[in-house]
Design a protein that fits this description.
Layout: H1 10-18, H2 22-31, E1 42-47, E2 50-56, E3 61-66, H3 74-86, E4 90-95, H4 96-101, H5 103-119
Parallel strand pairs: 3-4
Antiparallel strand pairs: 1-2, 2-3
Length: about 120
């Protein structure tokens, strides 16, 4: 299934990339330059009418980092995740503080999820 995006989100995505949170910058350090099993990840990627934190098109994998603002957007986040899943995407969500305090564990979860995708099993 082809993934479309709203071109109006391009500038907003650029702004988000230039103003990344600490937890996003921390995780990006390990995802950029094909460091995660050779897969290319993009940050602040427009997909449909949303912008996701990290995306690997080959794996159809979205990685989201939820900061404190997500505490007040549970219904929106659930609707957004359902739409992305309906597009055939897999979503991994991590709490921002968890990324900061347990980056090695987060990387392990991502690594194992990629292995599951490669094997054709559901992560």
């Amino acid at each position: 299934m082809k993934i479309y995006y709203n071109p109006k989100l391009k500038e907003k995505a650029r702004q988000l990339r230039n103003n990344s949170t600490f937890s996003e910058r921390m995780l990006w350090k390990y995802l950029k330059c094909r460091q995660m099993r050779g897969y290319q990840f993009m940050r602040q990627k427009p997909i449909d009418n949303y912008i996701v934190d990290f995306y690997c098109s080959k794996l159809r994998l979205v990685i989201e980092i939820d900061g404190i603002t997500h505490n007040y957007k549970v219904e929106y986040d659930n609707k957004r995740q359902k739409k992305l899943e309906d597009l055939g995407l897999r979503i991994l969500r991590f709490n921002a503080l968890y990324v900061i305090n347990s980056i090695k564990h987060v990387l392990g979860i991502i690594y194992r999820s990629i292995e599951d995708i490669e094997r054709g099993t559901t992560p």
